[in-house]
Amino acid sequence: MNFWQRTILGWKWRISRVSARFARFIGCFALTTAILFLAAPVIAQRVQVSPASPRLGDTISVIIQDGSKQGAKPTVRMDDKSYPMFPINTSTYRAFLPTTPLDRPGIRQIQVQVDGQVENLSVNVGDRTFPTQRIRIATTSSGGLKPTQHELDRVAAFRQLVTPEKYWNGPFIPPSRARRSTGYGVRRYYNGVFAKDYYHRGLDFAGPQGSPVVAPAPGRVALVGKLSEGFRLHGNTVGIDHGQGVTSVFLHLSRINVQEGDMVQAGQVIGAIGSTGASTGPHLHWGLYVNGKSIDPAPWLAQTME
User: Fold this and answer.
1) How many whole angstroms separate alpha carbon 34 and alpha carbon 261?
2) What are the mean pLDDT values of the chain's consecutive 10-residue runs (306 residues total)?
3) Nearest residue to 57 (alpha-carbon basis) of 201, 248, 243
4) Which of 15, 51, 86, 280 sits a CA distance of 20 to 30 A from 149?
5) Residue 68: CB partners within 8 Å, gap ≥ 6?
């Protein structure tokens, strides 16, 4: 074998060594990538956000499938605030994220953490036009615009309830058969002064004095407040805890038929329409709160919120 033959053979041997090493590298890289892909499925494929096009005042539902694979409860954050998640079956969790008329419309980042992985989901919250009203409230023996500290403290504590049990099942029902007189989110001038950080936190039903008010969904009566006990703004009040951060409050009642601690069912009479507190005439104010914030009750009447 001459010099050139030996040189060519040497180069062939070196090239085969490099090719083998490169092939092993590519194979390991591909295998590692496949393992990582299989071990870490995309979180977004396991998350359902509804409604698809939320607007200000809507309740955003976040449902996570198979969130309990490693025994750790998934977490959800929006606007730098964490929201509680609750199991709705053995492998699915749900959280409610409230929005209000005082929020800014636009893109919201919902941060979801599942099994140690974190992913940001973008949700566009649409704007919404709310009408403006001008009303006058007189200070009388039946109440007025200046609440007592006692009623503010009681109502604030009630709105923050997050009971682990879920008492409702299916859509809510209207708490009164009377016509709706004022919708959710209305902005107001009270006695000529614009309430800057205020919006109408619920639905009003204009019915006859003494007409029945019923529970819109099952729950536990967690608040009973009376005008005689200092509820000057809210008037005679009943609050129902529906569980898992969802609460209802009923204002201006003429009569209260329940006591704190009572368990009530949907359609059960809890009181009667009146005009106690800051009121211009007989009506029911029904407010629905999710994780402490007043949301629009209307969608809860139209569909089931799991």
Assistant:
1) 56
2) 50 49 44 36 77 96 74 87 92 94 95 87 95 79 76 97 96 97 90 86 96 98 96 96 98 98 98 93 97 97 89
3) 201
4) 280
5) 87, 90, 91, 93
Kind and range of the H or E run holding 252: strand 246-253
The H or E element containing residue 238 is strand 236-243
Asked if 283 contacts 275 with a C-beta cutoff of 8 angstroms, the reply is yes
Where b means 16+ CB within 10 Å and e means fewer, 218-242 reads bbbbbbbbebeebbbbbbbbbbbbb
Does residue 213 contact residue 271 with C-beta atoms inside 8 Å?
yes
Burial of 203 (0-12, 13-18, 19+ CB in 10 A): buried
CB distance 64 to 77 below 8 Å: no
> Model-level pTM?
0.83
First-residue to last-residue Cα distance in the chain: 83
For residue 22, which amino acid is it? Answer: F
Residue 62 and residue 78: Cα distance in Å, rounded? 11
Q: What is the DSSP letter of 187?
A: E
HEC secondary structure over 200-253:
CCCEEEECCCCCEEECCCCEEEEEEECHHHCCCCCCEEEEEEEECCEEEEEEEE
| 187-190 vs 132-135, strand pairing mode | parallel
Check: CB of residue 264 under 8 Å from CB of residue 221: yes
